[in-house]
Design goal:
Number of strands of chain A: 0
Number of helices of chain B: 8
Strand content of chain B: 25-35%
Number of strands of chain B: 20
Structural class of chain A: mainly alpha
Number of helices of chain A: 13
CATH topology of the largest domain in chain B: Rossmann fold
Structural class of chain B: alpha+beta
CATH architecture of the largest domain in chain B: 3-Layer(aba) Sandwich
CATH class of the largest domain in chain B: Alpha Beta
CATH class of chain A: Mainly Alpha
Distance between the termini of chain A: 52 Å
Order of helices and strands of chain A: HHHHHHHHHHHHH
Strand order of the largest sheet of chain B: 6-7-8-3-9-10
Oligomer: heterodimer
Largest sheet of chain A: none
CATH superfamily of chain A: MetI-like
Radius of gyration of chain A: 24 Å
Radius of gyration of chain B: 25 Å
CATH superfamily of the largest domain in chain B: P-loop containing nucleotide triphosphate hydrolases
C-alpha cells in the first residue's frame, strides 16, 4: 500500500503569516488615530490657557477632580472584595449576580442615569429620606459620584475578578496550611498576585468615571463636571470652544494612567 | 498515631469520591497513598490539610479531632504537584513565610530559614526569586517551606509527577534523605507504584474511593490481597479459570488442568477464579515435555526488545494473552511454545474479590 502525497499548494510559499490580520488591524488603528490627530490639530486655533482659566472651567475641573477619585475609590473598596468572591465561589444564583455586575456596562449611561433617578430622586423614599437630613442625592457632587460609580464600577470588578481567577487556588491553600487565616492570606497572597489586574481595573474605572456624561447629566446636570461643561460649551460655541477642556480631560486621564501604572509597576492596561 | 483517618467519606454532589477510608500514620513513618488518578487521593489530601470538610468521618491529628479545624490551625505541611511558591517573594522569604504566624522570635526565625535552606542545599539561592530557579530547585524550596514550621505531618501530593524522569528519580532520593534527617511523619501521595515502593515504609493502595490494600510494599507486591493490588503494583497477567477439585486444589485453564499443591485457599469445585501471574515469574520452554510445574502451550504473538529484556506476548490455547519477561534467547513470532508458571507465583482470586 502506498499513500499518495498531495503536491504542496502554492499557498505554502512563504508569505508573512500575520499579513492579513495586520492589515485588518491597521484599518482599525487608522480609524482610532485620525479623529485623535484631527482633534489635536485644532489646538492651534484656540487659546488653551485662556479656555481653562474661566471661572466656569475652573469649577468644572475642580468638581471632576473631586468626584472621579472618590467614585473610583468606592468602586475599588467594594468591587475588589466582590470580584474575589465571584472568582472563588460558586453558589445558586451566581449567574444572576454576574449579570447584575455587567448590567451597568450594557445599559446606555443615559438610561442608567434615569434608573438612578427613579431610585434616589428627590421624590423617591431614599431621596426624600436623604433630603430630610439635609443630603441631596441629585444635582449635587454626591449625585455625580453616584452616577459615576454606577457606570464605572463594573470595570474594576470584572478586571479584578479575572486577576483573582488566574491565581491557582493552591497558592492560597498553601498559605492557609502555613498558618495564615483567610484574611491574611488574601492580603499576603491573593492581593499582591492580582495587583496588575486590579491596577488595570482601577485605571479603566477612573477613566470611565472622569469622562462620565450620560448618567451624570440625568442625575446631576449641576454642579457641572468637565464632561457636562463640555456639552454646555459645545452647544453654545461649537467644536473650537471645547478643545481646551477636551484636552484637559484627556491630559488628566493620561497622567493618572501613567502614575498608577508607575506605582503599580504594570506595563500596559491590556497586557494581563 | 500522629495522623488517623476514621471512616472518612466525601461526596461531591452525588459523586462519592472517598468511601469509608480508614488508615493511620505512626510517628516518623513514610506512608505512600497510592492509586490511579481519580481514585480519591487528592480529596484525602484536602481533608487532611483541612481544605475540604469531609461528608462523614473524622481526621485525628495527635489524638485531637481536627475535622472542623481550619487549615491554619492544623500543623500540616503540604506540597502540591503544581508549584505554589510565591512569585513576589524571594526564596528565603518564601521559606520564612510559614514561620511568621508561629510564635518564634525573629533571630530564631532567620536561623530556621538558614537550616532548612541548608537541608535542601539551596543556601546560595536565598535571594533569588522562584522564577530564576530550575524546576528541581523550586521543588526543594517548596519542601523547605513546608518543613520549616515543623509540621506534625508533611503531605506530599504527587510532588514529582510534573518533572521529567531523571529529575524525578534524583528528587525521590532527596525526599528520602530529607525525611530520614528530619524524621517528619510523611504522607506521600502518588499514582506511580515504583515511586511509592521505593520510598514508603508502608503503602495504602486506593481504588475507586476505597482502600484496596494496606501493608509493607514487598508484602503487598508478593501476596496482594485483591486483584486490583495485584495488577496495580507491577505488571500482572490475568487468566480466568475454574476450580475442579479441592484436595489437592486443581483448576482448569481451558482444557488444561493445573494442580496447585502449595495454595492454601479454600474454593469449592465449580468456582470461577481469576489467576494473576507476574510476567517476570513466567518462563518459556520449547518442548512440551510434561514437568512437575504447571504449564500451558501457547503461540508467540509478538516480541518486543526493550534492551534490558524482551517482552514476549503469547496467546494460550484458552485464548488469553500473556506477557512473559525473557532476559535472552527470544522465540520467533508464530512459534508454538510452552509457558511455565511456577505454582507459588499464581495468585488466585475468587468471584467475590473481583
Amino acid at each position: 500500500m502506498s499513500l499518495s502525497r498531495p503536491p504542496l499548494s502554492d499557498y505554502s510559499r512563504r508569505t508573512p503569516e500575520l499579513l492579513l490580520p495586520a492589515v485588518l488591524g491597521g484599518i482599525v488603528l487608522l480609524y482610532f488615530a485620525i479623529p485623535f490627530v484631527a482633534f489635536l490639530a485644532r489646538t492651534g486655533m484656540s487659546n488653551i490657557v485662556a479656555g481653562l482659566s474661566t471661572p466656569e472651567a475652573q469649577v468644572a475641573i475642580r468638581n471632576s477632580l473631586l468626584t472621579a477619585p472618590v467614585s473610583t475609590a468606592i468602586a475599588t473598596v467594594f468591587g475588589v472584595p466582590l470580584a474575589y468572591v465571584l472568582a472563588r465561589t460558586s453558589f445558586v444564583g451566581k449567574r444572576l449576580v454576574e449579570a447584575l455586575v455587567i448590567l451597568p456596562l450594557i445599559v446606555p449611561p443615559v438610561v442608567g442615569g434615569a434608573m438612578l433617578l427613579t431610585a434616589v430622586g428627590r421624590f423617591t423614599p431614599i431621596g426624600a429620606a436623604a433630603a430630610a437630613v439635609g443630603i441631596s442625592l441629585t444635582d449635587s457632587l454626591l449625585g455625580v459620584v453616584l452616577a459615576q460609580t454606577f457606570v464605572a464600577a463594573p470595570f474594576v470588578i470584572i478586571t479584578a475578578r479575572a486577576g483573582f481567577g488566574a491565581i491557582d487556588e493552591r497558592l492560597e491553600q498553601a498559605s492557609r496550611s502555613l498558618g495564615y487565616g483567610p484574611l491574611s492570606t488574601f492580603w499576603n497572597v491573593s492581593l499582591p498576585l492580582a495587583r496588575g489586574a486590579i491596577v488595570a481595573g482601577i485605571v479603566l474605572t477612573f477613566a470611565r468615571a472622569i469622562g462620565e456624561f450620560g448618567a451624570t447629566m440625568m442625575v446631576a446636570y449641576n454642579p457641572r463636571t468637565m464632561p457636562t461643561r463640555l456639552w454646555v460649551d459645545f452647544i453654545a460655541g461649537g467644536i473650537d470652544a471645547i478643545v481646551p477642556m477636551g484636552l484637559a480631560l484627556l491630559g488628566i486621564t493620561l497622567v493618572v494612567l501613567a502614575a498608577v501604572q508607575r506605582l503599580g509597576r504594570v506595563p500596559t492596561v491590556v497586557d494581563e | 498515631m500522629i495522623l488517623e483517618l476514621e471512616e472518612l467519606s466525601h461526596r461531591y454532589g452525588t459523586e462519592l469520591a472517598v468511601d469509608d477510608v480508614s488508615f493511620g500514620l505512626e510517628s516518623g513513618e513514610l506512608v505512600a497513598l497510592l492509586g490511579p488518578s481519580g481514585c480519591g487521593k487528592t480529596t484525602i489530601v484536602q481533608a487532611v490539610a483541612g481544605h475540604v470538610r469531609p461528608t462523614a468521618g473524622r481526621v485525628v491529628l495527635r489524638g485531637d479531632d481536627v475535622t472542623d479545624t481550619p487549615p491554619e490551625s492544623r500543623r500540616v505541611g503540604i506540597v502540591f504537584q503544581q508549584p505554589t511558591l510565591y512569585p513576589h517573594m524571594t526564596v528565603s522569604e518564601n521559606v520564612a513565610y510559614g514561620l511568621a504566624p508561629r510564635d518564634i522570635d525573629p533571630d530564631r526565625r532567620d536561623e530556621l530559614v538558614d537550616e532548612y535552606l541548608d537541608l535542601v542545599a539551596l543556601h546560595e539561592q536565598r535571594t533569588a526569586y522562584p522564577a530564576e530557579l530550575s524546576g528541581g530547585q523550586q521543588r526543594r524550596v517548596e519542601l523547605a517551606r513546608a518543613l520549616a514550621p515543623q509540621p506534625d505531618v508533611l503531605v506530599l501530593d504527587e510532588p514529582l509527577s510534573a518533572l521529567d524522569r531523571t529529575l524525578r528519580e534524583q528528587l525521590r532520593d532527596e525526599i528520602a534523605r530529607i525525611q530520614r534527617e528530619t524524621g517528619v511523619t510523611t504522607l506521600f501521595v502518588t499514582h506511580d507504584q515504583e515511586e511509592a515502593m521505593a520510598l514508603a515504609d508502608r503503602l495504602v493502595v486506593m481504588n475507586d474511593g476505597q482502600v484496596a490494600g494496606v501493608g509493607q510494599p514487598r508484602t503487598l507486591y508478593e501476596s496482594p490481597p485483591t486483584p486490583f493490588v495485584a495488577s496495580f503494583l507491577g505488571r500482572s497477567n490475568t487468566l480466568s479459570a475454574t476450580v475442579v477439585d479441592q484436595h489437592p486444589l486443581t483448576i482448569t485453564l481451558g482444557t488444561h488442568e493445573i494442580r496447585l499443591d502449595g495454595t492454601a485457599r479454600d474454593f469449592s469445585a465449580g468456582t470461577p477464579v481469576t489467576c494473576h501471574i507476574r510476567p517476570k515469574d513466567l518462563s518459556l520452554r520449547s518442548s512440551a515435555a510434561p514437568g512437575t510445574t504447571p504449564s500451558l502451550p501457547c503461540d508467540v504473538v509478538h516480541v518486543a526488545d526493550l534492551g534490558r529484556r524482551y517482552d514476549v506476548t503469547v496467546q494460550s490455547v484458552t485464548g488469553d494473552e500473556l506477557v512473559v519477561e525473557q532476559s535472552g534467547n527470544p522465540p520467533a513470532t508464530g512459534e508454538t511454545i510452552t509457558v511455565v508458571m511456577p505454582q507459588d507465583s499464581i495468585q488466585l482470586f475468587g468471584p467475590e474479590q473481583q
